[in-house]
Amino acid sequence: MLGPFEFSFDAERAAAFVASTGGAETPDFGGTLPPSAVVAEGLARLIAELDLFGDEILAAGGVVHTSQEAEFFSPVSVGQKVSATAKIAGNTLRRGTRFVSVFTEFRNESHEIVATASSTIVVPK
Amino acid sequence: MRQGQRLKGFTRSVTHDRIAAYADASGDHNPLHLDEEYARSTQFGGVIAHGMLSMAFVCELMAANFPDTWHAGGKMKLRFKAPVLPGETVEVTGEVQSVRQTEQGQVAQCSVACLKPDGTEALSGTVSAPVS
Question: If both were cysteines, with which of A11, A81, B51, B96 could A65 make a disulfide (CB 3.0 to 4.6 Å apart)?
């Protein structure tokens, strides 16, 4: 198992996330985080944990994100603590390319699942 | 919501500044998205936007079209098919493919895509959300 990775978005960071992805028509999320922020944070923590931006991997071509699944069960509020745990769900070599799939669960302070995500990335052999 | 209904979409410009801002906000500092010299050495030949940035656009599309249900009941399955390059504007689109009855109520299944200026799909997939 990887993690748990604990995090929260304060109001400033939540606003920065919305600004970085949004436009004039972006809805007001109020005190709720865009669900994509939760998944993005989980993925960033995983990348750090697995050292996927390490020199050796970068020199070999780096990692490429090929697919993303997610399911959202409950809104996450600005400032709310989230704990993410992950596991390697797949590690296969197909036509000379290594695909790694990581499944992540996100839970709130009450240990209820608020979201799940499955990320598939290509890593150098 | 009914089968064949187009979701209200939008366009979004993807600039170096947006990519840098997304990297800071998300914590994803992959040099493929930020370091031109490194990115030139990769299969992409230059900096590309985060796939997760396009995913965020799809999340916004769904939040706008399913404001009462997306955050608690939304589901997505997306493939990143082509890189979005700095300077490109993507069109974020979706269409209801079916509305089915479940034990929890009606659920709309939609196809979604982020289209590059030449019409190429940068991202495509299926998403679903309860119909309020």
Answer: B51
3-state secondary structure of B54: helix
Instruction: Give tens-digit pLDDT for A29-52.
Output: 889 999 999 999 999 999 888 888
pLDDT in tens, B103-124: 989 999 999 999 999 999 999 9
Could you tell me if A61 lies within 8 Å of chain B, comparing CB atoms? yes
**Phi and psi at residue A103, to the nearest 5°:** -105, 130
B68 touches chain A (CB under 8 A): no
How far apart are the C-alpha atoms of B57 and A27, rounded to whole Å? 12
Domain with residues B10-14+52-130, CATH architecture: Roll (3.10)
The residue extents of the domains of chain B are: 10-14+52-130
CATH 1.10.1740.10 fits A2-123, yes or no: no
Q: Read off the pTM.
A: 0.96
Determine the pLDDT at residue B129: 98
CA gap B45, A56 in Å, rounded: 19
